[in-house]
Specification:
Blueprint (H helix, E strand, L loop, with lengths): L3 H25 L19 H9 L5 H19 L2 E4 L1 H17 L4 H7 L6 E5 L26 H8 L3 E6 L33 H8 L5 E6 L5 H7 L2 E3 L20 H4 L1 E6 L5 H9 L18 E5 L12 H18 L2 E4 L8 H10 L20 H9 L7 H14 L3 H21 L4 E7 L2 E6 L1
Parallel strand pairs: 2-3, 2-4, 7-8
Antiparallel strand pairs: 1-3, 4-6, 5-6, 7-10, 9-10
Pfam families: Amidase
GO cellular component, one term: endomembrane system
InterPro entries: Amidase_dom, AS_sf, FAAH2
């Protein structure tokens, strides 16, 4: 691991860069923020589970619901730039078929609820996840547009549950950034303030959901790619635990055995109530092991939270984030009868460096430097940087930075890497002790963390 001196030097460099950037950011924010068109159709404000209930009980048609979300998506797209490709006509035809099936009375309401819990409900999908017939470039500027030949496993499962995909949404190039911008479809804006970012890499999905252009969507997450955009746009994002949800059909991917321990197809939604039913569908045959239908009693639980990880590489908590964290803790104490405890975990100060190095050391992660897909052999990283500074590169900065950092990580000695892996395991063990009795809820953000256990 880096010495304390090297870490301090890097912190100073980052601080200088922030000071230089600050006045330019302030100037950019002098523009008055524009507002999105107001939501007029009440169907857009319903939960996915509520819409499904109303559709199968014939209180509303799937076609009406689909037309409402398509109209809203078309309305906000010019300002948000969150949609990459669409299948509006096909989605409407599928919605009409759903309505015809329900009117036929072939199955009872109870059967439909059990077998197809999202029958007739529209859902959106991050463009890095395959939807048959739609763009699947993962934000890359390709000579020939890549179209998904088949649905990803999670998409096929949600379809089987009655859901109807209608758009795929924007992502940074190869999902390698906390902003959503690429040279293919451009930048996505935050629906609450068009001057600002919705985060990334699932920023297109977050922007569409937050603007009521969709109600539930499929995303992906390795280091916050679903959770951070959700936090930036006031919706909900969940990264499932490793091994429960299939990652088949996502680009980028990797043949490295550690990949599925870090990466997961994720879910996002406007309403927390929709997360568990959606995850139950996405998990397929693994759903029973998740115990998602188990009732949770918060009373008497222990709430552990962290306000500062002590790391040099991360900024301290923003006062507003700290205030929100404490409000959440106070609410759980007073309203739910939990016991709150602030934790100071010394080992967390190195977690950013450890996690980054472990990720970067993975082999065969899809990127533009590979000689061919899945290959461990790379093209010249230096030459691509030369092309970038000469304005001749087709690639954006984040994937290029990945190439450089990957080269640096590969030079980490085996001894140092073993020390990082050992420290990572110690941190895991600490959390296992904290959660030793039973963990029922875990809420975390880049700069703060809540751990709740009995």
């Amino acid at each position: 691991m880096l010495s304390e001196c090297a870490k301090r030097l890097l912190w100073i460099l980052v601080w200088i860069a922030a000071v230089i950037a600050h006045p330019f950011v302030r100037l950019a924010n002098l523009r008055r923020p524009k507002s999105l068109p107001r939501i007029r159709n009440p169907l857009l404000l319903e939960r996915a589970t509520t819409l499904a209930h109303k559709i199968r009980t014939q209180q509303v048609t799937s076609e009406e619901v689909m037309r409402a979300f398509i109209a809203r998506t078309k309305e906000v797209q010019p300002q948000l730039n969150c949609v990459v490709d669409e299948r509006y006509e096909e989605a409407l035809q599928e919605a009409q078929q759903v309505d015809k099936f329900i009117r036929s009375g072939a199955k009872s309401v109870e059967q439909m609820e059990m077998e197809t819990p999202f029958l007739g409900v529209p859902f959106s999908v991050k463009e890095s996840i395959g939807v048959q017939g739609l763009s699947n470039t993962s934000g890359q500027k390709l000579r020939t547009k890549k179209i998904a030949a088949q649905d990803a496993r999670t998409v096929s499962l949600v379809r089987a549950a009655g859901g109807i995909p209608f758009v795929v949404t924007n992502t940074p190039e190869l999902c390698m950034c906390y902003e959503t911008d690429n040279n293919n479809t451009g930048r996505t804006n935050n629906p609450y303030d068009l001057r600002r970012s919705p985060g990334g890499s699932s920023g297109g999905e977050a922007a569409l959901l937050a603007s009521a252009g969709s109600v539930v969507g499929l995303a992906s997450d390795v280091g916050g790619s679903a959770r951070l955009p959700a936090a930036f746009t006031g919706i909900f994002g969940h990264k499932p635990s490793p091994g429960f949800v299939s990652n088949e059909g996502h680009c980028p991917s990797s043949s490295d055995p550690n990949w599925d321990r870090f990466f997961s197809v994720a879910l996002m939604g406007r309403y927390a109530e929709d997360l568990a039913p959606t995850l139950r569908v996405m998990a397929g045959e693994n759903a029973a092991a998740l115990n998602l239908q188990q009732k949770v009693d918060l009373k008497g639980m222990r709430v552990c939270y962290v306000e500062d990880d002590g790391a040099v590489f991360t900024r301290s908590l923003d006062p507003e984030v700290r205030s929100a964290l404490r409000k959440a803790v106070n609410h759980l104490e007073k309203s739910c009868g939990v016991k709150a405890e602030k934790l100071c975990i010394e080992e967390l100060k190195d977690i950013f460096e450890i996690a980054s190095t472990i990720l970067l050391k993975m082999n065969a992660v899809e990127c533009m430097f590979q000689v061919e897909p899945g290959s461990k052999e790379w093209k010249s990283v230096t030459w691509e940087w030369v092309r970038y500074f000469a304005c001749m590169s087709d690639y954006t900065f984040p994937p290029l930075l990945y190439g450089m950092l990957k080269r640096i990580a590969d030079k980490v000695s085996e001894e140092d890497f073993r020390e990082m892996v050992s420290c990572n395991q110690r941190i895991k063990n600490i959390f296992k002790v904290i959660n030793s009795e039973q963990t029922n809820l875990q809420v975390h953000h880049e700069f703060s963390c809540l751990i709740i256990s009995e």
